[in-house]
Amino acid sequence: MQRVVVIGGGATGSGILRDLTMRGIPAVLVEQGDLVHGTSSRYHGLLHSGGRYAVKDPESARECATENAILRRIAPFAVEPCGGIFLQLAQDDPGYADRWVTACQKAGVPTERIDIEQLRREEPGISPDAVAAYRVPDASVDGFRLIAGNVAAAEALGGRTLTYRRVTGLLKDGPRVTGVQLINERTGEEETMEADLVINAAGAWTGQIAAMAGIHLDLVADRGVLLVYHGRLTSQVINRLRPPGNGDIFVPAGTVTLLGTTATPVASPDNLEIPAAEVAALLRQGADLLPAAATARVLRAFAGVRPLFKAKGDGANTRDLPRTYQIVDHSAEHGVAGLISIVGGKLTTYREMAEKAVDVAAAHLGVTAPCRTALEPILPPPDVDVVRRVQVQVGAAQATYLLDRHPAGLADLAKELEAPLGTEVICECEQVTRGELLVVARSLPQPSLSDIRRRTRLGMGTCQGAYCGYRAAFTLAEAGLAEPAAAPALMLDLQEERWRGVSAALPGPELRGAELTYALYAGLFGGMKP
Amino acid sequence: MINQYDACLKCNLCELHCPVFRVTPAFPGPKNGGPGIERLRAAGKAVDETGLDLCLGCRTCEVVCPSGLSPAKLVHQPKIDKVRLRGLPAREWLLAHTNLLGEVAVRLPGVTNGSLGLKPVRIMMEKALRIDRRRPMPRYARGTFRSWFARRPSPWRERPAPNGQVVYFHGCSTNYMLPEVGRQTVAVLEHNGFEVILPPQRCCGLPLMGNGEIDEARRWAAYNVAQLRPYAEKGIPIIFTSTSCSLTVKQEYAHLLGVDGAEAVSPLCYDLFEFLAQLHDDGRLRLDFRPSPQVLPYHQPCHQRVQGIGTPAVRLLRLIPGVESWNMDAGCCGASGTHGFKREKYDISMAVGEPLRAALVASGAARGVSDCEACRWQMEHLTGMPAVHPITVLWEAYGLG
Amino acid sequence: MMKRSRTYDVVVIGAGLAGLMAALGARRAGAEVAVVAEGGGALELSSGSVDLLAGPWDALAEGHPYRLVGSDGIRDGLDAFLAAASAAGLPYMEDAEHRNQAAVTAVGSLRPTYLPAPGAAVVQPGCSVHVVGFQGLREFHPQVVAEGLRRAMPGLPVTWGWSDLPDGVTSLHPLQIARQLEEPACRRQLAARLAGQGVGAALFLPAVLGLDQAPAVRAELSAAHGGTVAEVPLLSPSLPGLRLGSALTRHVQRAGADLHLGARAVGAACGQGRIDSITCQTVAGAVAYRAGAFVLATGGLLGRGLDVGARVPGLPDAPIYETIFGLPVEVPAGPLAATELLAPGGHGFVRAGIRTDEHLRPPGWSNLHICGKMLAGYDPYAEGSGGGVAIATGWRAGLLAGGVAK
């Protein structure tokens, strides 16, 4: 018997798990795929300053401004404080800038007008048509690290996380929800899990879960397509200073740059198709801001689905739907006790959403402990002795990558690096060593290379896994973490997953890389498929 | 901004062909040390530059790259940054100032060559300067090429040269150590009806650049450009007998050093054999060669290969009746200018040169041919067999000796 | 001012397998030949074995490059390649019955190949195999290969084991291992370490057994083992590919062709249906290469013979174009790439290329011949035909160009 089951291993669910455990409420999180299976890894990675929403959706803007400051404090391991720019082009409505500045002021979003020539020195790639620019505290946030940090913090307090468990039904006792029915996607086994309270934080899948309790939530699955550039096109986030539209945000993230997004309502949150027309539209509009975006190398495209909440009277255009969120207490609204749903929202405000949801849950459970998630850092600072051990093994530069990627669990990593061959590089583009690969693989049941990729960046660089995927698969086999007979399939799964994104972004300069990958896998490794 | 590394496919061709990478794990290689590191650096990440200075600067990576990149330049940049910060160490200063040393040495060639040949001197140099005692020092000549040129009467005092003028950029090695290459060059050019002009000149600056000293190299380059530009503007070809000098003036004066006016000079620059091959293409080269049956395995200097001009020397040597010549294509010789003198790089230099040694020995020839003096010294050191500039062969075949 | 120029009978653009074969073909026709190339060819990235065709011959589409040269053309090309490779120190062997052989890959699959690289691991019915991996070598796992072989050829006796590398090997990079294994002491120690492994079976090792001296290394190990010692190519670096690329490049120069590396062809001067010269970029400016005939062997997208233009506003797709002559590129209808990497039908973008007549000339040009990957209408990777097409069309293009020029 659990006290609380949280459905959804994205930002909101992991934030709820941490909040619950900090208030002393035992909880378990279930997720249909790997952590960040859904939208939390399928977006542009922007930690909003609030500027984007200031004019149209001031409430969202205010939430973003507050949470942005909090996350920089509690999650420095996941935030790259690169700063952001709103850039007005000659062809943009000059009146909008004034309205925007006023709205930002009202919403508490700090802005600073900067000289356009100064900006050209900072960002030589911006359009010659740029006429005005404002600085905002945008940042880049790594969704995976943020969520892994929340999960690690919750696990330290007794919380549990079960990945690859898909909810197939809700257990009910009359009108009351008493738990969840699950299927283990790796083994095919069915499981049930009873609980005092179920919190539905399934993001884009929230409506499907609510429907299992016979409740209809009016949600819109809004698909956005994004592009990943091979290198850094800018050093700061670049937004276009106009009403939010397609292809108007560039976010630098580590070694790459993301360009987002489009907005297309789709029937199912599992619809992650990438229409060629949307890729072309992104490139065209992105090039308005950064001309090089039209010709720079795009590694891949991907799609994510925003879970938008449609209130009565909202129109059909998803750009007009609010980006704010609601906590739905189904006992009050639909007479179904034991179930709370969180709808809408965005990654930047995940902590506040979690706080509000857990407030409702705590009231039901009779817990009075207050929320402390904004007050304490998610993770303690790394142990200096362990950091030194890592540095001794891989050198100071490489150690910084590892500290970034593994804010928790560094001691295990140090041990693995100290083992024979622990510092042999497996993925050259993103500098992933054997030790890092093994420590991550050991922490997961039957890991796929994509599970490892999300935790290490293996296969996310220049070669998109072509040169490291097979090395990783062989290494897992050699270390007893994968069946040798299954190693080729492990490798090929990663390659096919990467290819879906690569092929969707073609044609472009990456056609050459695509031919190389194809030549290697159909040629040198030929005969794998009849 | 599209960064330089953007086109790298990690196809590994540069790594496969890098002469240093295959002989030492201490060198990160052109792919990881070049575009690989650059991509991380552009993301503001700390990068590990250990071992990058083992690069020989041969630029093979640039030649084989199917994406038009120059990994070598990315690999070399940290050295430039370091020297700018801390200056040149004593040994590097000494090795890089070939012309200053030459000025002293040619005045006392007996003493210089004698003492540089003494074991205790070499041991001392190795201890104090980490200049490897196993590496033979090039011998200084008795008198410079320039002093010979100044003393000699020009054959074109009475009448203008029928084919016009050429400027000769002889470089340091010809002037101080191998004046015969200069004399033979002048003889062959005059035989073909050209008047040779010898403007004042300094070291091209490559030894400085190779050791990371860009600013001083730029000053020398500016001097040379000032000397050469008036001729270039008159359309007078500028001839080089050292392929490293020619590469530097043709390309680096404008690209790496950004010297004003370098673009005006570059299009007039020719490697000697590139120029002679051009004469041949235009039907203007004299073909009055004496038959001289011989086998001449040719080693193409890396700094000529990267120029994209092929192997003009091989083509011309084949015009001499009885000559069998071919490009051995056995990779970098390993000397790479001043690198092979350094204690910590000597073994690498010899390992890099091993395929060339094997190819020379297998050819069964009496001597090898190469346009670059550092390559020739290394060929001799690797095999004990003499190596000559192709102009020597041409000069003999014309019967000018 | 003098204009920079070079005059040859034939100029071949591209130094991959097709370009090198074209140079040899033109030399055979008695022509003076230059090969100009910006970078190395893709030969170094290949398995070093020559694939002819994995599937049935009668299934070849109309307009397939093989149909242009015909079976005699393929035979002539193969004979020329076998002679050249042999002269370059790499004796390739055809199957006596002219069948494909089953080459072993590092993932344990079997891929049909016509001319296995000298020393390449191939399996035949009736043989038994012992696969050995080197501790620490990330690119190879003997059990992965063994399990794959058991699946691919049920009943084949396969065992596997690990070996330590010799003490003299101080690196775990395949290229560095290969060089160090050329040292006599290392070879001897490796032979000793392998003693007792796979007695009576063919010994399959990762392809790191030497660079230029690979035949000697393999011979020494075979003698010690008392049977076959063969190599399985690694995905990267694939040393048998490097060995073939280096040896053939040297051989072409020994055969009298001039190799101009680092020379990027950027344009051409054309007369009435004829190419008069091409322009190459060098460090000191443009050089005009004049010739009686030209061979285009620039190798498609990967070799940058084809490139992708910037996207034109309003058009969803960037156009694929030929970079030197602006020849019309045939791009198959439908999506350029399938959503699956190993899609059974291959990918459209790989089939993009130039259509020619049976003299390998694009329509309207009398002295330009196209060969290798630049030809339209085939997918060398899905078909297993890359090496064969490069050799057959390269040799033919070279002969034709040499004939035209003379």
Please explain how this structure is put together.
The complex is a heterotrimer of chains A (530), B (401) and C (406). With 530 residues, chain A is of the alpha+beta class. Chain A contains 16 helices and 22 strands. In chain A, the strands form four sheets. In chain A, strands 5, 6, 7, 13, 14, 15, 16, 17 and 18 form a nine-stranded mixed sheet that branches. In chain A, helix 1 packs parallel to helix 5 and helix 12 (434-442) packs across helix 13 (449-456). Chain A is globular and about 60 Å long. Chain B is an alpha/beta fold and 401 residues long. The longest helix of chain B has 20 residues, at 214-233. Chain C has 406 residues and is an alpha/beta fold. Chain C folds into two domains: 5-88 and 242-405, FAD/NAD(P)-binding domain, CATH 3.50.50.60; 121-232, Rossmann fold. Chain C is built from ten helices and 16 strands. In chain C, strands 1, 2, 10, 11, 12, 13 and 16 form a seven-stranded mixed sheet that branches. Chain C has a four-stranded parallel sheet with strand order 7-6-8-9. A three-stranded antiparallel sheet of chain C has the order 4-3-5. Chain C is globular. Chains in contact: A-B, A-C, B-C. At the B-C interface, helix 1, helix 3, helix 14 and helix 16 of B face strand 1, helix 4, helix 7, strand 10 and strand 12 of C.
